[in-house]
Design brief:
The protein is an alpha+beta fold and 196 residues long. It has five helices and eight strands. It has a single domain, classed as Beta Barrel (L,D-transpeptidase catalytic domain-like).
């Protein structure tokens, strides 16, 4: 099915649905198809006001691989970035996420659907607050799980050490990646995190 953005909005009354977009995105996707399907289902399930761009974090990949995917839902374009996971998710620092957790003080990454909230300037500079939308991540606000830049996330770090550093559960990106992610995601968009 090859639909233009205009015809998609006409067919759906302005609401872009996963059923219409799944075949188009799967063909162009650098994202694991099963994970993309879950993300699009989450987009349909939750009240996400801005549905043009989503992010999918594929934590079944190692930290040295770009696995934070910005997905242009209507156009199918995908741009991938490095992202660190929490030290509580990878205690041995292998570069592979071993477990998710929603528990306070776990320092682990949480799985599920998040909605981006406001952009603010904190300890890590420019950051994006996140609201957890599922039972697996509904402590995101109280745990201060955000998207931020970190010195330990870069292609040079991945090449030199074979792994990125680890966050305290946040989605930590490189400075350059954070600039693009903050510009393209902004408030009221979906981030979906999981592994296959």
């Amino acid at each position: 099915m090859n639909l233009s953005r205009r015809s998609l909005f006409a067919v759906t009354g302005g609401v872009v649905t996963a059923a219409l977009l799944k075949p188009r995105l799967a063909a162009a996707s650098a994202v694991e198809p099963a994970l993309l399907s879950r993300a699009l289902a989450a987009l349909d399930k939750h009240d996400i006001p801005n549905r043009d761009v989503i992010a999918v974090a594929d934590f079944s990949l190692p930290s040295s691989t770009p696995r934070f995917h910005l997905v242009d839902v209507a156009g199918g374009r995908i741009v991938s970035h490095l992202v660190a996971h929490g030290r509580g998710s990878d205690p041995a620092h292998t570069g592979w996420l071993q477990r998710f957790s929603n528990e306070p003080r776990s320092m682990a990454t949480s799985a599920g659907a998040f909605s981006t909230a406001d952009v603010y300037f904190g300890a890590h500079g420019k950051s994006i607050r996140l609201v957890g939308l599922d039972a697996t991540n509904d402590n995101a606000m109280s745990r201060a799980i955000v998207v931020h830049a970190a010195w330990y996330v870069s292609p040079d770090m991945a090449r030199a050490h074979g792994v990125l550093g680890r966050s305290e559960g946040c989605f930590a990106l490189s400075d350059a990646s954070l600039a693009e992610v903050a510009e393209r995601l902004g408030p009221g968009r979906l981030i979906y995190a999981d592994k296959i």
